Every structure is written in C-alpha cells, then in structure tokens.
Amino acid sequence: MVILGIDPGLERMGYAFVSKIGSKFQALDYGLILTPRILLPDRLRIIEEQLEELLKKQKPDVVATERLLFTVNKTTAMDVAKALGVALLVTSKHGLPWTEYSPPEIKQSVVGNGNADKKQVQFMVQRLLSLPEPPKPDDVADALAIAITHGLRHLPAISKL
Questions:
Q1: How far apart are CA 18 and CA 1, in angstroms?
Q2: Distance (Å, rounded) from C-alpha 108 to C-alpha 88?
Q3: I need a surface site. Which of 2, 40, 90, 95 has the fewest CB within 10 A?
Q4: What's the CA gap between 28 and 148, in Å, rounded?
C-alpha cells in the first residue's frame, strides 16, 4: 500500500509518499509544494498542478491529511482550508480514499504521546522510516507522520473521493 500524507498549507504544503508492506514502512518521496506570495487563485493552481504531477508519478492507494485546527488566526485558517480543498479535489479525481487525523492522534500513533513535541515526532519518523537524519522542515516531518499514522491505524476511509 502506498500512502500519501499531506500536511495542509498554502505557502508550504508538506507531502509524503510512504509504502507499507506488512509492518515495514519505506519513504518513497517527500517534500514541499511551495507557492510564492501571488494572488490566491494562482497559488491554488500551483498546488493543483504540482500535486497532480506527484500523483501521476507515485500512484498512491490512499490519502491521509491532518485535520485543521485553528483557534487564533482565522484568516490563515481560511486560506489553508482552501489549499486543503484543492488537494482533496485533485485526489478525488484519482479516486483515492481519504482519511484525516487530528494532531494529537498523529502524535499518539507515531510517538505514543498525544502531547509530543515536534522534535519527538521528527525523531520517531526518522526511526520508523530508517532515514539518515530527522526530516525537515516541520511540514515534511508532519506529512511523513500522517502517512505513518494511516499505515499504523489503517482505518476505513471517511469517503471514497
């Protein structure tokens, strides 16, 4: 099974393609989709184009995202939600089942502690994927952790997109 983990963002969207065979995980590809500070529709188009290209190359079986939780900056939350919407639209075109996990669920799955900090998540992601160093930046580490979480939990999809 190839899992696409997405850490939603408008300026920086983390993505990770992780293979799970049995109980073994392997990172296939991971990185950032970056958008410059241009008009919002153009930023969303960049996300769509780059994600489409990645999906054609990696051909994942499922997609998992982090559930958006914003309490302070509602303007940022709206833009991130728009970026997530584009990601879900693109994955829907490929017929991928989708599941989302809250930040505490991801930390609990990967570290064993729902209140773990970023360094603990990076350390465990490095260990679970046998990476030579902790993944950086946080958006990439989070995308990897999201994919691992889905592989560990392997819950049924929320919806078939």
A1: 8
A2: 24
A3: 95
A4: 12
DSSP 8-state assignment for residue 154: -
Dist CA 66 CA 6 (whole Å): 7
- Please name the residue that has the structure tokens 């991801």: 106
Q: The domain that contains 150 carries what CATH number?
A: 3.30.420.10
Cα separation of 59 and 87, whole Å?
15
- Say how many domains are in the chain: 1
Q: What is the pTM of this model?
A: 0.91
Q: For residue range 103-130, list pLDDT tens digits in order.
A: 999 999 999 988 899 899 999 999 999 9
Q: Which residues contact 129 (CB under 8 A, 6 or more apart)?
A: 18, 25, 26, 27, 144, 148
Measured CA to CA, the distance from residue 90 to residue 29 in angstroms comes to 18
Nearest alpha-carbon partner for 144 in 160, 126, 132, 157: 126
Residue-wise pLDDT tens digits, 85-107: 999 999 999 999 999 999 999 99
Name the residues annotated as catalytic: 7, 66, 139
12: left (phi over 0), alpha (psi -120 to 50) or beta: beta
